[in-house]
Amino acid sequence: MVIEELDTASFASIKAFAERVLASEQRIDFLINNAGVMACPYGETADGLELQIGTNHFGHFLLTELLMPAIKRAAPGSRIICVSSVAHKRGRINTSDMNLRDKNYGRWKAYTQSKLANVIHARQLALRHKDEGIVAVSVHPGVVSTDLWKGYMTTLYTVLAPELENGGYYADCAPASTNPKAKDDALGAQVWEISRKTVGLA
């Protein structure tokens, strides 16, 4: 087991983490994008982004792109799991300002937007890398008051299940219905380009 420090609210931390991992690991079979913050008061990341979209989505987007060379080396069969939430079903993407500035901020609005962005991210990864044998899905991990492993079962299922719906959304260890906006591939492409520009890859 290798333990490394990572703060997904800091692009510098993400880049340093990815550099260390790529220097030590030839391949990545599974990437689980799981770090996040939930319904917090307005705050900003180290890079000046709204804290929830910055931590829950843009940080994961940058991390995934930086680790993609090692993920590709494990293909076919490598997997990317984006941990979302059932709350994504109430989310809307504000493509004109995903940071929800100009008095647009609401802590639940920001959270549900970030969780919808997770589902969109997984679908876009699946569409863009399906020919390389990379599978990407999003999950609602569940909410439990005891036994942490029970709340992790759906995430673990998407790592171990022999067959998955590429780009799908999973809850309770099975495919689940999702926000229709998550399947709007024109919106997905727009979110992808906004994300690339935001993290400095475009």
Question: Describe it for me?
Answer:
The protein is of the alpha/beta class and about 200 residues long. It has a single domain (about 10-200), classed as Rossmann fold (3-Layer(aba) Sandwich), CATH 3.40.50.720. About 45% of the residues lie in helices and about 10% in strands. The protein has 6 helices and 5 strands; from the N terminus they run αβαβαβααββα. A 5-stranded mixed beta sheet has the order 1-2-3-4-5, with helices on both faces. Helix 2 links the parallel strand 1 and strand 2. The radius of gyration is 16 Å and the shape is globular. The N and C termini lie far apart (about 35 Å). This is Retinol dehydrogenase 12. Keywords: Oxidoreductase. GO terms for molecular function: oxidoreductase activity.
SSE topology sketch:
Blueprint: H1 11-24, E1 30-33, H2 51-73, E2 79-83, H3 107-129, E3 135-140, H4 148-151, H5 153-160, E4 169-171, E5 174-175, H6 185-198
Parallel strand pairs: 1-2, 2-3, 3-4
Antiparallel strand pairs: 4-5
Side by side, the strands of the main sheet go 1-2-3-4-5
Give the oligomeric state of the chains in this entry, treating copies of one chain as homo and distinct chains as hetero: single chain
Spans of 5+ residues with little confidence (pLDDT < 50)? none
Q: How many distinct helices?
A: 6
**Total strands:** 5
End-to-end distance = 34 Å
Mean pLDDT: 93
CATH topology: Rossmann fold
How does the major sheet shape up?
5 strands, mixed
- The CATH homologous superfamily corresponds to NAD(P)-binding Rossmann-like Domain
The share of residues in extended strands comes to 5-15%
User: Can you write the helix and strand succession as a string?
Assistant: HEHEHEHHEEH
| Percentage of residues in helical conformation | 40-55%
Overall outline: globular
CATH architecture: 3-Layer(aba) Sandwich
**Level-1 CATH class name:** Alpha Beta
Protein name: Retinol dehydrogenase 12
Organism: Schistocephalus solidus
GO molecular function, one term: oxidoreductase activity
Keywords: Oxidoreductase
